[in-house]
Amino acid sequence: MSQHGNENADKPRESIDTEATQAATVTEEVDVEQTEDTAAQTEGGDAPSPGEDGSVRISDLEARISALEAENSELKEQYLRKQADFENFRKRMQREKEDSAKFANKELLLDIIPVIDDFERAISSAKSTPDFASLYDGVILIEKQLTGMLERKWGLKRFDSVGTEFDPQHHEALTMENSDDVEHATVTDDFQKGYMLHDRVLRSAKVKVAMPAGPQTSEDEVDSE
């Protein structure tokens, strides 16, 4: 009887332990659920208030805008400087181009001035000494000096046409006549000399041309045609 009583006395203790274990399990489950809820709230939206988050982002944007404005201002200044440099360069090139065209014949003119001096001396000599033969010789000498200088230094050469075959690249026919003495169109006189600049015709010679005489055509033959 005593043994049976002890067994009945032990049963309430086991029940108490089981209830305690169950209570602890429930407590752990509640803690886990609360922890998961807290994590979900933290990830999903339990962040700083919209006002705080908005103020931080606006500050970053304002800083970025300020940096871009400063960069844009610097680029604009660089563009304006380059534009001004280009405009100055364009004006300088225009001035140099105008000066080059204005003074392109400087060397040629320096070579011609001594010839003008020779003409002035010849004219002064003719006034004081009425010796036309000497004047003529002096003018011929000056002319040879001038043409020689132009050919030697500048490539300007006068070409003769009389007795040569007519060439439309070199000659301009002012008058023409038939002749039995020529077999092809031949220059018989030049009214104005032609000039070459190096290997190019600078001015054609104005000439008179003799054409070979062809068979005479009667009026009846012309009418029959």
Descriptive notes:
- The protein has 225 residues and is an alpha+beta fold.
- The protein has a domain of 62 residues: Head domain of nucleotide exchange factor GrpE (Nucleotide Exchange Factor Grpe, Chain A, domain 2, Roll), CATH 2.30.22.
- The chain has 5 helices and 6 strands.
- The strands form 2 sheets. A 3-stranded antiparallel β-sheet has the order 1-4-5. A 3-stranded mixed β-sheet has the order 2-6-3, with no helix packed on it.
- The termini are far apart.
Helix tally equals 5
Global morphology = elongated
Question: CATH topology of one domain, which one?
Answer: Nucleotide Exchange Factor Grpe, Chain A, domain 2
Order of helices and strands: HHHHEEEEEEH
Low-confidence stretches: 1-11, 38-51, 216-225
Strand order of the largest sheet: 1-4-5
In total, the number of strands is 6
Beta-strand level of the residues, as a percent range? 15-25%
Oligomeric form: single chain
The CATH superfamily of one domain bears the name: Head domain of nucleotide exchange factor GrpE
Major sheet summary line: 3 strands, antiparallel
> Average pLDDT, to the nearest integer?
79
* Cα end-to-end separation: 173 Å
CATH architecture of one domain: Roll
Structural class, by secondary structure, is alpha+beta
What's the level 1 CATH class of one domain? Answer: Mainly Beta
Radius of gyration: 58 Å
Q: Into which percent range does the helicity of residues fall? A: 55-70%
